[in-house]
Prior knowledge:
This protein folds into three domains: 2-175, no CATH class; 197-239, no CATH class; 256-367, Glutaredoxin (3-Layer(aba) Sandwich), CATH 3.40.30. Helix content is 48%, strand content 13%. It is built from twelve helices and eight strands. The longest helix has 25 residues, at 80-104. Pfam families: MauE (PF07291).
Amino acid sequence: xxxxxxxxxxxxxxxxxxxxxxxxxxxxxxxxxxxxxxxxxxxxxxxxxxxxxxxxxxxxxxxxxxxxxxxxxxxxxxxxxxxxxxxxxxxxxxxxxxxxxxxxxxxxxxxxxxxxxxxxxxxxxxxxxxxxxxxxxxxxxxxxxxxxxxxxxxxxxxxxxxxxxxxxxxxxxxxxxxxxxxxxxxxxxxxxxxxxxxxxxxxxxxxxxxxxxxxxxxxxxxxxxxxxxxxxxxxxxxxxxxxxxxxxxxxxxxxxxxxxxxxxxxxxxxxxxxxxxxxxxxxxxxxxxxxxxxxxxxxxxxxxxxxxxxxxxxxxxxxxxxxxxxxxxxxxxxxxxxxxxxxxxxxxxxxxxxxxxxxxxxxxxxxx
Length: 368
């Protein structure tokens, strides 16, 4: 039991650190997931959950950093009993979220490991139950974990450092872009290619005759077999990775193919109500010089705001470029910056830039 307890202790600490770091890699994505939960709870439980939506980014960094710090504390065995009781509160909270999502089909991805690992609601709930089992083994057998690796002032110092590092990682990612991009629109990806299936769908058919069931990879021509069920054998590769990328103008005319052809410098303005306005002097200068680039480079804007709202916004910031419209969720997946810049070459993402990291014309040309 001593060895089992130590294995569970190690797994518990490592999983919490890993989970927190993955979320801190993309705190904006974690915040969007929290907003999704708050929206659902405000509809199903009480409207007061709307109060948390404006603070979702702060909560994102706080909760993610807390996971890292608690994981470090577990591994150091610092104030182990108190830390384990705090972990229990988090596990119950996360368990409630994942069970609610699974049972009522409210949020299809819990965001437990960010966009790095996608989990179905029931898989997420099973993961939380597994962690709860690890917690129970460790909590009930603390006598096997008496050696503390950091006591007193040294322990406080380690926990303070862990807190500062975790928060620092999250704050920097919040003010720039994720360190690692796991989204379909990451640099190097071909958007047009990802809008098509990698291969045709393959099926297997379960047929029945005289009480006997048999599986076929091709639909049988023998009419004595009766259809029972069908399953797709390659669900991941037979469906496009990107299914909702569509760009259109104010009249509803589709411009998707045009956007994915040639060199484009795309300014993504997700929502004009929350978009930063302080960097438009640099942005406008870049869009102007892009149009005069040595390499053909067409600047344009894509937004999810209404035509009327965006028209007012572009006049406020002196934004002079052709503009188009797309779904808000798509734009949030394209870049974690509002506004943000994406460099495309025939639909291939060559660069992504936060509004705090506006590139020079030379940097753009070097990417093409």
